[in-house]
Design brief:
alpha/beta, 12 strands, Rossmann fold, DNA-binding, homodimer, 6-stranded parallel β-sheet, 332 residues
Chain lengths: 332, 332
DNA sequence: AAACAAAATGTAAACGTTTACAAAAAAGAA
DNA sequence: TTCTTTTTTGTAAACGTTTACATTTTGTTT
């Protein structure tokens, strides 16, 4: 590997001059520039990024921590992030946790070690102590994750209110026995949605029945399996609220397979409004999150943090929207 | 930001000693270690990763370049990559090109500047010169992309043979008018699949008709639209071979919407065997790529390149498999 | 041709680590 | 106690850049 020194030697100039040529803007005479350029070509020289970053104390790289990249929910958010990043000359890299918290921890450490300029995390699944410490001294934004009263820059919708709203809708449609598919509550947001569900029942004078709650992994297969198991359990229900569209899609598959009519015999509602939800049969009633906008806002927030500029709001609550489709209402 | 110097000063030792304590293995007396540890805590010191990497000349980070992260085809491959990486203490980061070649170029440059230890790219959509140069001196593996006779470590299936095989299957099922949905041929692999299609026609004595070829973006929506446009064109066809499952799924949606029975009036075949393909109605006939294995192999290859060990095969051809489902055969 | 200003180049000190090597301190053996 | 050996510590030179400052070269003005 040729270094700047080799180039300087070959071109017969000082390393400072080489650096100026590489950077482009420095005052260097055309003759010298030509000599240097030729030496660079000849040696196939590439400036070392680490040395440069060390000197500049910044990398222009930022990392997005995603719990599971195959969850399509994140894709549109990523668009928003990517486009905002590009406008600001930042480069984003995605760390797929694959639901392993060790990965989140690793990159939070990388942030504190200045290996990257900032992080947007869609997980918050490590020791609160670590999160707090990272957010305190470094640019970190938590998105789509509720945090129990620690002050970290964040953006999220109001999951409790949204879940309540969609359950109220089911109840208003005449359903009184709502089953709930949720995911393991290591993510607080599933806890929030469960809270919204119970709040809705309570406010409508319905009983909470533990037998109607099923824990899934947040994917189609698991939603499918848990719905079958629910059907086999013999417990009566006339609707399903799944805390994620993937689980809801699995539920629809199971119901159809058993010949149960949707929504008449059993209505289904999801959460997130992923792309597939409007395409399946029947189209899925769900909560739409302003995904693209969340991405943009999260990135803008992070950039402000990196630049040290003032942040108007450290905790943004984005607007959600109830999207009613045929899975919950015959007449639309 | 506290540096190693600050810690050394506070603890009253040399920076070498601090370094030894941080690293963990060095010979340092318990008393000194305690002093240093306390100073580290007190100053909230985190070693600078860039300085460390500069010294070590390696980062343990490798980048995966993906054309479009929302293409589920890549997700299972990523599993293979991630698990192999973890076993080897490497950390992977995903660069989503979002189909912009500028991003691929940027990270190839990052590789040459030693910002990362290696790259696996699922794109090859920049100047061949750049690719060649990068692969020549740095650890780079191209996966799932055919490269026109340049010698770069790679792994791929035989796209021509696979496409031929699936078209032969359609023809053997009695279809004689196969439409083809393909994607813009900036990716050579689509060219390959088209070649397989034409080869199959030729070998079976059927005419190639340009009107049966439609160019899509490789996603559901575009497959849907192009199929509708094909139907509206009035050109007769009795089957569709889509060069990707997402396009095929769009095609199925369009056919169903128009009340055309699958596979009797029109058979459909895809390519890739993504998760959704076995779940839709009717299940999709397709070519399965050994995705997980491709991920493992690509990563292992890259690790060998990084370690400088000998590589048995620089160009791996993975085995594909024709998966026949109901979208092409009523009786299965 | 001398005096000056402007442009081009070089020198050397950073950036924050790691690590050979040297030196000092502690422990063990005689 | 004195001499070795072992353990612990420190010194200083890397790693490959950038950049303030000093110096030299070039060009302009008189």
């Amino acid at each position: 590997m040729a270094t700047i020194k080799d180039v300087a030697e070959l071109a017969g100039v000082s390393i400072a001059t080489v650096s100026r040529v590489v950077k482009g803007n420095g005052n260097v005479s055309p003759k010298t520039a030509a000599k240097v350029t030729s030496a660079i070509k000849q040696l196939n020289y590439h400036p070392n990024a680490l040395a440069r970053q060390l000197k500049h104390q910044c990398t222009n790289n930022i990392i997005i921590i995603i719990p599971d990249i195959s969850n399509t929910f994140f894709h549109e958010i990523l668009h928003g992030i990517e486009e905002t990043a590009e406008r600001n000359d930042m480069h984003i890299l995605i760390a797929d946790m694959h639901n392993k918290t060790s990965i989140e921890e690793y990159y939070l450490r990388a942030l504190m070690q200045k290996e990257v300029d900032g992080i947007i995390s869609f997980s918050a699944n490590v020791a609160q102590q670590l999160l707090k410490q990272a957010a305190n001294d470094f640019p970190l934004v938590i998105a789509c994750q509720y945090l129990d009263n620690i002050d970290i820059p964040s953006i999220t919708i109001d999951n409790v209110a949204a879940a309540k709203e969609i359950c109220n809708h089911l109840i208003a449609s005449g359903k009184k026995n709502i089953a709930h598919l949720t995911a393991l509550p290591n993510f607080l947001l599933y806890q929030d949605r469960l809270d919204g569900y119970t709040a809705s029942l309570r406010e409508n004078g319905l009983d909470f029945r533990a037998g109607l709650i099923r824990y899934c992994s947040p994917n189609i297969k698991s939603g499918y399996e848990q719905t079958l198991s629910l059907l086999d359990s013999g417990i009566y229900f006339d609707s399903i609220f799944a805390a994620g569209d993937t689980m809801a899609i699995g539920a629809i598959r199971a119901l159809k397979e058993r010949g149960i009519s949707i929504p008449d015999e059993c209505a289904v509602a999801g959460f997130d409004d992923i792309e597939m939800s409007s395409l399946i049969d029947p189209p899925l009633t769900t909560i739409r999150q302003p995904k693209y906008q969340i991405g943009c806002d999260a990135m803008n927030m992070l950039i402000s943090l990196i630049r040290g500029s003032h942040i108007a709001k450290r905790n943004i609550v984005a607007e959600h929207q109830l999207v009613i489709r045929q899975s919950s209402c015959s007449v639309n």
